[in-house]
Structure prediction request, 174 residues.
Amino acid sequence: MSEQQNAKTSEQAEAKKEAKAKKSGKESKLLEQIEALQSELAEQKDTYLRLYAEYDNFRKRTAKEKADIYTNATAKAAEELLPVIDNFDRAILAQGENIDQGLKMIHTQFCEYLTRLGIAEMKAEGEKFDPARQIAVMHIEDESLEENVIVEVFQKGYTLGDKVIRPACVKVAN
Prediction:
């Protein structure tokens, strides 16, 4: 082999080494990038799992608080009703001794309790019929009355603020 061929061969070998070095440099950069992305993915996954666990705990805690609120409200309402029941028991034991007066007192006590809760009796008789607030169970024809006027209340209706708890059962004219 001539010197020229040797030089050419050694140049080719040198070029191959350089290409190999460049290739391995690119591969190592790619490997570093892959490792960085895998690390970032693991961090994101950990963050996601922590947020999911936190949300799940929040959901469970609020469900328990909601159940506790209902239980506490029911207990408070029952606690307020117990004196009314006690008075009914006393009235039953009295049997005849001023029972009318006792029942009126119990009725007054119960109405006061409803007022403290914010529950109000709906005024219906003489008013215009409103299907959102009353249920018409009877209808009469009476020319002396206006159309859709409530003539009689069979069962009182009650509201809590603007919410109808129980609509009134009424008789409507015309």
